[in-house]
Amino acid sequence: MAIMMGVFSIYLMVKSAELPIGWIEEEGPGGGTWPFWLSAIMLASCVGILFNWVRKKGPIATSTKTYIESHVLGDVAAVAAALIVTVALFSVIGIYGALPLFLIFYIRFLGKHSWALTATLTVAIPVLIFYFFEITLKIILPKGITEPLFLPLYKIFL
Fold first, then answer.
1. Residue 29, class by beta-carbon neighbours within 10 Å (0-12 exposed, 13-18 middle, 19+ buried)?
2. Alpha carbon distance 88, 96 (integer Å)
3. Cβ 121 vs Cβ 68: under 8 Å
C-alpha cells in the first residue's frame, strides 16, 4: 500500500509542477504549490512507512493481523463510489447540489447518525464552503444548473 501511495504521490507532484509551485511576486503561492508540497509530505510518509517495514521496527511493521477487514473494504468501496458519483454531479447540479447528497449518504446511511445531525451538517458545510471559497478567497466553484440561484448572493457579497 505504501508503494502504491508513494507512486501516486510522485504522480501528483509531477502534475502539480505543471503549475507554478513557488512564490509569485505580488500574487502569492502558485497554483501548484499546495498540491506539490502536500504530495511531497505524503511521499515522505510513505518512505518512512517502508523504512520501518524493511527494518521490522514498530508494532505495525511486526503485526500479523489482517491489514484491512473485509467489511471495512466494503465501506471504503462505498465511499469511493459515492465520491465518484459526487464529482460527476458537480458539472450537472454543482458542488452545492452534489455535496449535500454525499453528506446525507455518508453521515446518515453509512455513519448511521441521527437525522438532526445529518440535516445540520448537510446545511452548514456547504454554507461554510460557499463563504470560505467564494466570498473570502474569491474562488468560484462549479454550480451547474443551480448557478442562477447564486446570483442574488453574488450581488450582496461581491
1. middle
2. 13
3. no
The set of cell numbers assigned to 51 is 523504512
Residue 13's CB is within 10 A of a number of other CB atoms, namely 19
pTM: 0.67
**CB of 38 within 8 A of CB of 71?**
no
Locus of grid cell 518512505: 47
| Residues 6 or more apart whose Cβ sits within 8 Å of residue 147 | 94
Interval 76-109: pLDDT, tens: 999 999 999 999 999 999 999 999 999 999 999 9
**Could you give the dihedral angle defined by the CA atoms of residues 40, 79, 51 and 57, in that order, rounded to the nearest 10 degrees?**
140
